[in-house]
What does this fold into?
Amino acid sequence: MSTVRNPDQTRSRLLEAAYEEIYQNGFQGMRIDEVLARTGLKKGAFYHHFASKQELGYAVLDDVIEKFMTGRWLEAMQQADDPIAAVESKLDMMIAEVDPNEPIRGCPLNNLAQEMAPLDAGFQQRIDSVFQFWIGTVADALARGQAKGIIAARVKPQVAATFIVGAIEGCVGLAKASQNPATFLDCRSQLTDYMQTLRS
Amino acid sequence: MSTVRNPDQTRSRLLEAAYEEIYQNGFQGMRIDEVLARTGLKKGAFYHHFASKQELGYAVLDDVIEKFMTGRWLEAMQQADDPIAAVESKLDMMIAEVDPNEPIRGCPLNNLAQEMAPLDAGFQQRIDSVFQFWIGTVADALARGQAKGIIAARVKPQVAATFIVGAIEGCVGLAKASQNPATFLDCRSQLTDYMQTLRS
DNA sequence: ACTAGTACAGACCAACTAGTCTGTCTATAC
DNA sequence: GTATAGACAGACTAGTTGGTCTGTACTAGT
It folds into this structure.
């Protein structure tokens, strides 16, 4: 049996399976054997593409999570006429994506942050850079809103954006703790109130 | 050598060591051997007091973390003249407790929540009950503030309290991700702004 | 004082898990 | 076409980890 080889795709499959396993069990809880079982690949393939479990974790952050967050927030914020409406729209999307049949697993980025940031500098730097990028997209949108006069001049875009991102993660985290989507809705309603105070 | 025995204290030492290990490495990352090394005890002692690692985790939540949160928030909120000022005071205490020489490890309760809530129903229920208690203390204080006329009547205490707790955890979580206390200060300043909007 | 249950010590085990190594098949360069 | 490097398979290992089990010393009730 002649096997067709496609190393790039093999690597992607490993990354995708690892992302799922990490999302479900955390990085430390993720087992390489389970990633291999998901993909049907063997140890030989894995360690050909990744030097270690740690390197796999870094690659998931670099190649899956960062790209996901970039795709999700960058252009949505960049081409937003109203930054607050754009954030609200993203929150609506997050709600729509919740699968009521599955446990609430929260935000993949924040999950890794809370687990790994104090334990591993490589994780921490990558995570921080994604958060800073995310906050930066919101801050830039707020600053453009100020230029357009729809956001109050007193608002500090970076500070407000930090809080918006922090509050989103907080609301998601509480919903995860309670395993109740209604918690997110309650929490989010107040984030909405806060954001309205940023308008001029 | 005649060893003095004190089973209650032995159990407490195990719980305290386990709490520290969980706080540093997470529940899954916590190793029983390391708990024993911290205490100088052996397997025999451990499995006499706890049926399993899972039961230890439950006990840490029930006997350490819940008690800690109760002691920290209950009476402070109960005897608060001004609920917002009381929360601010607690935030000041949290800042004061940060040790600049150690990595920012965040909130022990939220750490466990983000790691274990979707994985283990026993953890999830215990964590949720502590969060609900915490939120309840804040909500009750807000309601009393409304009765006194210092909190606006339009405020829904439970919803506002949920957001306050969520935002606190979000701010702490971001500071943990960035390993930068300044992130918490920025984030918190906006939580302060939000809370001011609750006044009448 | 005796006994029975309690509170441990510490050796041991079975399962798991990250990582290694050798071999083989495939693709690519020439 | 052939050599060389890349892309895997899969058996194997060494270390770890939660948990068990037996034995023993302590303690409380009678």
In short: Chain A touches chain B through 49 residues (CB under 8 Å). Residues 3, 5, 7, 10, 41-46, 48-49 of chain A lie near DNA strand D (CB under 10 Å from a C1'). The first helix of chain A runs from residue 7 to 29. The mean pLDDT of chain A is 97.
